[in-house]
Amino acid sequence: MKLAILGGGGFRVPLVYGALLGDHAEGRVTDVVLHDVDAARLGAVARVLAEQATGIPDAPAVTVTTDLDEALRGADFVFSAIRVGGLEGRAADERVALAEGVLGQETVGAGGIAYGLRTVPVAVDIARRVARLAPDAWVINFTNPAGLVTEAMARHLGDRVIGICDSPVGLGRRVARVLGGDPDEAFIDYVGLNHLGWLRGLRIEGRDELPRLLADPALLGSFEEGRLFGADWLQSLGAVPNEYLHYYYFNREAVRAYQEAEQTRGAFLRDQQARFYARMRQPDAPALKTWDTTRAEREATYMAENREAAGAGERAEQDLESGGYEQVALALMRAVARNERATLILNVRNGTTLAALDADAVIEVPCSVDANGAHPMAVAPLPGHATGLVCAVKAVEREVLAAAENGSAATAVKAFALHPLVDSVAVARRLVDGYRQAHPGLGYLGRGRPQGPDMITG
């Protein structure tokens, strides 16, 4: 099988390739093509993959290209892991928002809207090309904001695009370990949108063990989300929120921590990865070791501002393990390509799963996956407070999709103004003006012409 990775010069690509190296079964991926607009980044990542494959005789062959159509032709699976505007764009998203006193995080609030407005037109172009050049391919979307981008692509690819994220899986694994269960065997009752969901139950051998966790403050304080939100708040909710809900529940504290930080997260990653790619321009640089050292630093500093605001301290060693989005992607491919049935938390179209949303709304829920794709499982309704937040944020996503389609600056203002974390229409107007000045690619707002696919980078 052929796998095309868009944003193939991106820093996390070696995680995906490492997962593929452990798959030796029939029907595995044998060819990987990396696409990016930056040839130097492609070369750096290809060096890391070559060192990963050392001593593995059946390692998937790797090719690189800056031609998007070439990458897509003949692909069985397409991983979309692009970053429109690069990390400099993310840093600008943060700066513009924080100057207005609102959150500029990559997927949440004003920053997430700005990132979506840049990314959706490019993602739609990719979806159209996939439909034309690889109509039988399955698209696995890693690109943030994952739910929004998946929904944009689904309008052209239907259920053949599936979004993935590692945060629900990581949360479920941490809770399962705290409760003494096997993370690989536990069923995670998780419902919401991407980066806006709640773990409402965790079944081990058929028994829901979450009530035991919520009744024990010591257990609640023993893992990252418990320290981040506090035992009292989790007990009040009767659930464990995705870590990104910290931006909603403790918004003032998070914004203040970001404003007082020496660097925003985007600026830190921009500088860190610039050092990595500069080091990789040296022919004698140990590629895999350089990448792994950089990755470890990245993981250790994840959501540092939120932990500081909550007084949660440094990340515990056991919390450094992500949900393993590369393992989720591999399990998804196996289930589809070989009909190896699996249950995975994915971003898919709602259908009739959540009555408060329409059928085409992309949600994040446990899914049964087989050769026919991902099928959302029946879930209990969300409580009123969660339903209200989900519906409000989904309404914002729909305005982002509309603005990206019609190029209307007024619609973009509406998207910002309706978000729960933006508290003024006047602020929303200034945000649109600020982001248009910061990002040439957003010049289409007010002119009706979104940017093209030449903005893709990993």
Helical content stands at: 40-55%
Shape by Cα distribution? globular
Most strands sheet: 6 strands, parallel
What count of helical segments does DSSP give?
20
Structural class: alpha/beta
Ranges where pLDDT stays below 50 over 5 or more residues in a row are 453-458
Please, what is the average pLDDT?
92
Rg computed from alpha carbons, rounded to a whole number of angstroms: 21 Å
What is the number of strand segments? 13
In spatial order, strands of the major sheet run 3-2-1-4-5-6
What separation lies between the terminal Cα atoms? 23 Å
Q: Which percent range describes the beta-strand content?
A: 5-15%
What are the main properties of this structure?
alpha/beta; 4-stranded antiparallel beta sheet; globular; disordered C terminus; 458 residues; single chain; 6-stranded parallel beta sheet
Short structural description:
The protein is of the alpha/beta class and 458 residues long.
Give an account of the 3D structure:
- The chain is α/β, with parallel strands linked by helices and 458 residues long.
- It has helices at 13-21, 39-52, 68-72, 86-99, 109-133, 146-157, 167-178, 210-214, 217-220, 224-229, 231-237, 246-249, 251-260, 265-280, 287-300, 304-310, 325-338, 384-406, 409-418, 425-438, and strands at residues 2-6, 31-35, 61-65, 77-80, 138-141, 161-163, 187-193, 196-204, 207-208, 240-241, 342-349, 362-370, 373-376.
- The strands form three sheets. The chain has a six-stranded parallel β-sheet with strand order 3-2-1-4-5-6, sandwiched between helices. Strands 7, 8, 9 and 10 form a four-stranded antiparallel β-sheet that branches.
- The longest helix has 25 residues, at 109-133.
- The model is unreliable at 453-458 (pLDDT under 50).
